[in-house]
Predict the structure.
Amino acid sequence: MNRRHTYGLRRRAASLALGLCIIAATGTSALAQEERGGAAGDWLSHYATARTVGFGGAFVAVADEPIGALWNPASLTQVFQNVIFVETARLFEETTINSLSFGTPERRVMPGFGITVISLNSGTFERTNELNDIVGEFGEGEMAFVLSASKSVSRRFSLGANIKLVRQKIDEFSASGAGVDLGLLFHLLPSLTVGASALNIGGPGLTLRETEETYPVDYRGGLTLRFLAGRGMITTEFSSRPDYETKFHAGTEFWVHSMLALRVGYNDRYFAGGAGFALPNGIQIDYGMSDHLLGVTHRIGLSYGFGGFYASSQADPPVFSPIGAQSVTRFDLEARTKAEAVSWSLDIVDKSGQIVRRFSGAGLPPAHVMWDGKNETGMPLADGVYTYQLVVIDAEGRRTGGRKRSVEITTAGPQGDVPIIIEEGR
C-alpha cells in the first residue's frame, strides 16, 4: 500500500469532516466556504456554547463566566462564584463536541483562575489503498486545554491571559502546540463595558508530518450595554484575522422573569436565539439554536455556581397573613463581597414594579429583618405576590445582587363550598 497516497486520502477525508463541522458549529454560509477553505484551528476559534449561540457569538465584552475566557481571558474578573460548566452537542452524523470548564473569582490579592477543556471528535472514516479498496477505518480528533488567569488592575480596568495547549490526532499521526491569549475589560460606565482580546499569539502550531499549520491571530473587540438594573443587555463584537474578512456579531439578552432569560443574536450572516433557565441553588440551564447549511443545530449547557461572592435572602414563611397567627415574615440575609461592604438594601416590589418597602444600612446586612406586610408609611399592603432582592455594594463600587424571590401576603380565610346534606324523613 502506498503510504503517502493513503495519508493524502486521510487528510482529505479529515479536512472534509472538519469543514462540515465548522459549518455545523457556526452556521457559516456556503458563499464564505467557497471563498476560502478555512484556517487552522477554526473548530476552536468558532466554538460557541448554548449561551453564546444566543448572543450570535458576541461575547468578548460580556465574558461573565469561566468559559468566557475563550473569547476574553479577562472574564474571570466578572465571575462572582465558583462555577462549573459542562456541555455536549452532537453536530451532525458522528461529529460531537464536548466542553468542561471551572473557574474561581479573583480575591483581593489573588487573581481569578480557570481551566477549560474542549474536545471535538469527527467519528471514523474508511481507510483505502491506492486501488481505492477499503482496508479499515481511522479516526480524527482535536482537544484543547486552556488555563486562564485574570485580575482587576483598578475598579474599571482588568486584564487576563490564557495559556492554550492544543492536540490533534489523525489515525496514527498526532501533533501538539501551544499559544497565548490576552484580553482586557474596561468599564466606561457602570452600565457600559468595552472588551478586547488577541487570541492565538505565537501559535498554536501543529506539525502532523512535515508541514506546520499555525492558528492565525484572532483580534476581537466589542461593547456591552446593560439596562433595567441588569435585566437587559445588548452586546456587539467585531472579529478579524489577517487575510480574512472582518465579521460582525450582535446579540441581546433579557430576563423576563427571575428564572427565565430570552436571547436573540446575529452572527455575520445568520440569526440565532436561545433561552436561559436559572434554577434554585445556583443551577442554570442554557439553550441555543442556530441555522446552517445542514439544518438547525441545538445546544444545551449546564452550569452550577457555589461559594465565592454572593448576596442571599430568603423569606420564612414565604406566605403570611398580617392579621393571622403568622403576622410577620422573616428575611434571612447573608452576603460576601470582594472588597469591604459599604452598604446593603433589601427592596420589596409589587407587581407593577414599584418599591413598597426598603430595608437598608451600612456594611454587611444583619442576619435577618422582619416585615409586617406594611409599606414605608406604615399602611397595610394589599393581598398579592411581591418580589424581593438583596443588593450589597462594596468599597470598589461592585454591585452584588442576590436572586429575586417571591413572598405572598394573604388575609383571606379558607374558601370553598360546604356541602349541605338533607335527610328526607321516613
Summary: The chain has a mean pLDDT of 84.
